[in-house]
Amino acid sequence: MTEHIEENTAWRRSVRGQRIDAVCWGLFFIWIGVVLMVKTIPQGVGALGVGGIILGGAVARRIFRASTSSFWIIIGAIFLLAGIGGMLAIDLPFLPVALIVCGILLLLHKRSRRRSHHHR
User: Does the predicted TM-score (pTM) go above 0.85?
Assistant: First the structure.
């Protein structure tokens, strides 16, 4: 009986996580569309919005007790910093660096996951 309750709870958390992900992806695509359509949006606002969406998704996952990945928290923070840098007209390549760091972290994240599955 206890196993069934634990499985049901894990399943509900998984479903919540999938719903949060779907909402975040929807917001992401809407935001990117708005940024591409509206030519008067200041530089950096696009990246700032992406960071906000990512971190908002992480907060929602925490609130609804779905699993939260520190990977996405780092990515969200990087995009927030890139957006702030762009808005302040700091002459550093924040967004390209953020994208490169995202790619590296994603590769390292997937690699570490693969290792942990092999050790079980």
Answer: no
The full set of domain ranges for the chain reads 2-118
Estimate to the nearest angstrom the gap between the alpha carbon of 41 and the chain centroid.
22
pLDDT of 9: 60
Instruction: Report the alpha-carbon distance of residue 43 to residue 88 in Å, rounded.
Output: 9
Would you give the DSSP letter of residue 41?
S
Residues of the chain whose pLDDT is less than 70? Answer: 1-13, 110-120
Distance of alpha carbon 78 from alpha carbon 84, whole angstroms: 10
